[in-house]
Amino acid sequence: MSATTDPRPLVGEPLALDLLNTRWMRDGSVQDLLSSPRGLAVWLGSAGLGERFEANPITLLHTKIARDALHAVVDGSLAQGAEDLDLVLDQGRIRATVTAEGPGEIPEFEDPRWGPGWLAARNYLELLSTAPDRIRRCAHDACILHFLDTSRNGTRRWCSMASCGNRAKASRHYARANPRNA
After folding, report:
1. What's the Cα-to-Cα distance from 125 to each of 7, 86, 113, 149, 160, rounded to whole Å?
2. CA 17 to CA 47: how far, in whole Å?
3. Three-state SS for 107?
């Protein structure tokens, strides 16, 4: 696997959800892109962070801690996972700045190896403040992917209609067509 090949079935979600999606199901078993620094390099490149952060064992550990904290608040509850997410958020801060282009923000880290995980945690806060009801987990029972529902009416249910949506439709059709086998 080269640093440019991302094997995940869903990419391009907001950073917090993209980090959660470094775990996915394939043939009934969980795949984990963050099983090595090499996989971290793939994710960093896919997320546009490859030039800013080094894929090393410590960055990998910190990023996995952030992913676990995000998992706790997204798939559990804010009350249960807030403390863990706050521990990640304590690793960085935003410095307000002004440039020739106007106002800006610069993330700062005492230890830059927390950077990718901190940015994902910060992105989750942004999602919570702008569209908390649009953060979704795929409705397919065998899928663990997450997405931001950007549909006009907010009724998207599947990470991908081409995979999970079609599997669900096919299952319902089979159950109707073969009631004894369902």
Report:
1. 27, 11, 20, 16, 25
2. 11
3. strand
**Residue ranges in the chain modelled with pLDDT below 70:** 1-4, 165-177, 181-182
Question: Could you tell me what percent of the chain has a pLDDT over 70?
Answer: 89
Cα distance between residue 56 and residue 59, in whole Å = 5
**Average pLDDT score, the chain:** 91
- Counting DSSP H helices and E strands in the chain, the numbers are 6, 6
- Is there a contact between 91 and 109 (Cβ–Cβ < 8 Å)? yes
CA 123 to chain centre: 10
Contact 122, 114 (CB under 8 A): no
Contact 31, 24 (CB under 8 A): yes
Measure Cα distances from 26 to 13, 144, 156 in Å. 19, 10, 22
Q: Which residue has the tokens 């793939």?
A: 42
